[in-house]
Specification:
Elements (H helix, E strand, L loop, with lengths): L5 H4 L9 E3 L1 E2 L4 H13 L5 E4 L2 H5 L22 H7 L9 E5 L4 H15 L5 H7 L1 E4 L4 H7 L6 H18 L3 E2 L1 E4 L1 H5 L4 H22 L7 H6 L1 E5 L5 H21 L13 E4 L13 H11 L10 E3 L12 H17 L13 H23 L3 H6 L2 H19 L33 H15 L2 H15 L6 H10 L3 H12 L18 H18 L4 E5 L8 H12 L3 E4 L6 H11 L3 E6 L4 H14 L7 E5 L3 H9 L4 E3 L6 H15 L4
Helix pairs in contact: 2-4, 5-20, 8-10, 10-12, 10-15, 12-13, 12-15, 17-23, 19-20, 19-21, 22-27, 24-25
Keywords: Cobalamin, Cobalt, Isomerase, Metal-binding
Subunit structure: Heterodimer of an alpha and a beta chain.
Protein name: Protein meaA
């Protein structure tokens, strides 16, 4: 006798599930470690580490640029002591870890490897390295286009990526040294065609660089291709998104076979993880985000032949602020119900032979090929970054989407349609609906840095950093010098600072000047233009607006859209890009004699940085110039900012940029005593 029913006996065996992750890290290494161990105990099958912005951009917590940013959007890891704490009691040789790190990816991978060696003192370091599995994001090109955590110029960044790929292929063969990210391209406004095309152009640039470096033999080049992974986005148009993934699979197979001559189909397999779309999550009626997340998850799981290898889902309240552990658990449970309760994994591909799917995939492939050819004709992805072509295309595409939402052509439930709602128990207490990063994290990080430096061998650190600088001036692979610096006790800021001195820094084009904004003004925008013009005439000068991005937050999509719409509304717009200190923003306001300063902050550092700008303007004699703020700002913080002198605060629920422009004109009129 058996306990199973006939129907249970006839069920086909299930495929292996994808890796289940939540993107997490905040405040301190100790707090993040506790969160990781809790999530693993709940059934999460891999780790996805979020680092704070100073770590991502190569600054120690005592840097002036790190003010207000430490521990906000991720965990600060400034030296080996913090890396040890982050993975305490988590066996790295048994873990699959994804690290969202780009400009400083080589440094964080080196510290991760050293931490694993320290966990296994009786094992040969080479054997430890061979057991490590995971991914470093390490896609710097999309940082120039969308996310903003770049440091070095493109050619030097590609050199670091190439060195990492060559090292991992030989020393850490189970590691994905780069995760080419179309995710952030979609967040910046990319259409499915642009997302496919620009990701493929990035892959071509990277593979061409590895081949040109001569560090990998022809026989091993297939292994390089086989370890290239992708990190994609899945929006709520889940049929189109599913077809996009099938198009990715088809195109990657073709490029790796025809351009690089890879014969082994396993090495040509399109391997990707996914974080589903955060751009479409709404602050208004945030409970609707749950069904959005589910639909987006289906886009990357339903099609077996294009199924994600790893999935991490945002939480329902990410448009409000930092999710709590319970919110992350809810997102994990969404995956677990699909994988373990449904019968999805018992069947082959559900869409093979579908004429609808085949036609859509062919359309996407053709469009992507045409855009790839356009970029390659310019000289490839790096040239298209330098000229600003890809950035302008993304800003323009995002502007079209914003215009479609504002006109009602694109419906967002709860935002521009079906806006009447019952009170939500999820947001009854908004201050409790999100987690606030420990305000003491910055001081704790500074104390940790000071203590670390006090106990280390300064001579050994200086020698290791000098060796790193010397190697950077040659064609040597920098991974060994980086490992030596980690073992000696160098810090994140010191490693990056050493390479900054050799490579220099870079400021990517903003894409605003070449972007196409509103194709047609419409009555509402025309009325704002008239008001802008009339106010300028009353003041005797064209209205000037400074759009500023203080701190290290590189998510510039909102700032770019505000700048484009302000220009369309008739303002003269001054936008100097990302990563400015409050002092630099004040200096620009003085030099340009602006009528309003708009600050965009999404990293949670608004309570530190905004008051610094307001006070700086007062000290510069511009206390009458109004300051407005946009970003993910909790309601209680918004009230505090307004009480401290900020003229207005806008959050994701304020989706109409034209209405915001109308408000700004009135703010300027009030500040200048105009009726």
């Amino acid at each position: 006798m058996t306990d199973t029913t006939p129907s249970e006996q006839s069920r086909p065996a299930k495929d292996r599930s994808w890796l289940m992750r939540t993107y997490a890290g905040h405040s301190t290494a100790e707090a993040s470690n506790q969160l990781y161990r809790t999530n693993l105990a709940k059934g999460q099958t891999g780790l996805s580490v979020a680092f704070d912005l100073p770590t991502q951009t190569g600054y120690d917590p005592d840097s002036v640029l790190a003010r207000g940013e430490v521990g906000k959007v991720g965990v600060p890891i400034m030296h080996m002591g913090e890396m040890r704490k982050l993975f305490d009691q988590i066996p790295l040789t048994e873990m699959n870890t994804s690290m969202t790190i780009n400009a400083t990816a080589m440094w964080l991978l080196a510290m991760y490897q050293v931490a694993a060696e320290e966990q296994n003192p009786g094992m040969d370091p080479a054997e430890v390295a061979a057991k490590l599995a995971g991914t470093t994001q390490n896609d710097i090109i999309k940082e120039y286009l969308s996310r903003g955590t770049y440091v070095f110029p493109p050619e030097h960044s590609l050199r670091l990526i190439s060195d990492m790929i060559a090292y991992t292929v030989h020393q850490i063969p189970k590691w994905n040294p780069i995760n080419i990210c179309s995710y952030h391209l979609q967040e910046a406004g990319a259409t499915p065609v642009q997302e496919i095309a620009y990701a493929m152009c990035t892959a071509i640039a990277v593979l061409d660089q590895v081949k040109a470096s001569g560090q990998v033999s022809e026989e091993d080049f297939g292994k390089v291709v086989g370890r290239i992974s992708f990190f994609v986005n899945a929006g709520v148009r889940f049929v189109e998104e599913m077809c996009k993934m099938r198009a990715f699979v088809e195109l990657w197979d073709e490029i790796t076979r025809e351009r690089y001559g890879v014969e082994d189909p396993k090495m040509r397999r399109f391997r990707y993880g996914v974080q589903v779309n955060s751009l479409g999550l709404t602050e208004a009626q945030p409970e609707n985000n749950v069904q959005r997340i589910v639909l987006e998850m289906l886009a990357v799981t339903l099609s077996k032949n294009a199924r994600a290898r790893a999935v991490q889902l945002p939480a329902w309240n990410e448009a409000l602020g930092l999710p709590r552990p319970w919110d992350q658990q809810w997102s994990l449970r969404l995956q677990q119900v699909l994988a373990y309760e449904s019968d999805l994994l018992e069947y082959g591909d559900l869409f093979d032979g579908s004429p609808v799917v085949e036609a859509k995939v062919a359309e996407l492939v053709a469009g992507a090929k045409a855009e790839i050819d356009r970029v390659q004709a310019m000289g490839g992805a790096i040239a298209a970054v330098d000229t600003g072509y890809m950035k302008s295309e993304l800003v323009s595409s995002h502007a079209r989407r914003r215009a479609a939402i504002e006109s009602g052509e694109e419906i967002i439930v709860g935002v521009n349609k079906f806006t009447t709602t019952e009170p939500s128990p999820l947001t009854a207490d908004l201050d409790a609906a999100i987690m606030v990063a420990d305000p003491r994290a910055e001081e704790a990080a500074k104390a940790s840095l000071e203590a670390w430096k006090a106990q280390r061998d300064e001579a050994a650190v200086a020698e290791a950093l000098a060796a790193l600088a010397a190697a950077a001036k040659t064609d040597a692979n920098l991974m060994e010098a980086t490992l030596a610096a980690a073992r000696a006790g160098a810090t994140t800021g010191e490693w990056a600072g050493t390479l900054r001195e050799v490579f220099g820094e870079f400021r990517a084009p903003t894409g605003v000047s070449g972007a196409v904004g509103a194709a047609e003004a419409g009555a509402e925008l025309s009325a704002v233009r008239d008001r802008v013009k009339a106010t300028g005439e009353e003041l005797g000068v064209k209205l000037r607006m400074l759009v500023g991005k203080p701190g290290l937050d590189g998510h510039s999509n909102g700032a770019e859209q505000v700048a484009v719409r302000a220009r369309d509304a008739g303002f003269e717009v001054i936008y100097q890009g990302i990563r400015l200190t409050p002092e630099q923003i004040v200096a620009a306001a003085v030099a340009e004699d602006v009528h309003v300063v708009g600050l965009s902050i999404l990293s949670g550092s608004h309570m530190s940085l905004v008051p610094s700008v307001v006070e700086g303007l007062r000290e510069a004699g511009l206390g009458d110039v109004p300051v407005i703020v946009g970003g993910i700002v909790p309601e209680s913080d918004a009230k505090t900012l307004i009480e401290s002198g900020v003229a207005a605060v806008y959050t994701p629920k304020d989706f109409s940029l034209t209405e915001i422009m109308a408000d700004i004109v009135e703010v300027i009129r009030k500040a200048n005593g105009l009726s």
